[in-house]
Design a protein that fits this description.
The protein is α+β, with helices and mostly antiparallel strands. The chain has helices at 6-39, 54-60, 95-102; strands at 49-52, 70-78, 82-91, 107-109, 119-124, 136-143, 148-156. Keywords: Membrane, Transmembrane, Transmembrane helix.
Length: 158
């Protein structure tokens, strides 16, 4: 029976050692990602998001905030794609006219909105429109009790 010399045996153990180092590094990386994911409550494991004003979010979306806005909560994420999103409240009576004047070419609809949404707008932009990199804007409006409308904004690039 032929036996392996010392050189080939060391090479074999060296290859197994390299595989072990790569496997441990990969497992360490996955553990690090899980820790980041859990530490951030499941959102944004790569820490790419930041809070911004809803005025900045609307500027990114090629628009402007309406008058009398309350309860602003907007953020911006930039990892593979850029996305500004958030919510704010405004007077219910002004919602339709604000959307129509801010996005005159947008698809303003009531029939095809999602469940619980009273008014929605979809606007797609050609790349580089108005000096912005935004490609699409989605706005959903839900009429709340009284004279208030909750606006959900999502503007993104691809």
């Amino acid at each position: 029976m032929a036996t392996m010399g010392r050189g080939p045996r060391r090479l074999l153990w060296g290859m197994w050692g390299i595989c072990l180092v790569v496997a441990v590094a990969f497992v360490g990386y996955v553990v690090w990602l899980v820790i980041l994911y859990v530490a951030n409550g499941g959102d944004d494991p790569f820490l790419t998001g930041s809070d911004i004003s809803c005025g900045q979010a609307m500027a990114y979306a090629n628009g402007s905030l309406p008058d009398q806005v309350t309860d602003q909560d907007c953020e911006f994420h930039n990892w593979m794609d850029d996305q500004a999103s958030g919510t704010f409240r405004m007077p219910r009576a002004d919602a339709r006219s604000w959307l129509s004047s801010t996005y005159p070419d947008g698809d303003l609809d009531t029939a095809s909105c999602g469940e619980g949404t009273d008014l929605c707008l979809r606007q797609d932009f050609e790349h580089g429109t108005a000096g912005s990199s935004v490609h699409g804007v989605r706005i959903d409006v839900t009429y709340e009790d009284g004279d208030t409308a909750l606006v959900r904004l999502s503007a993104f690039s691809t």
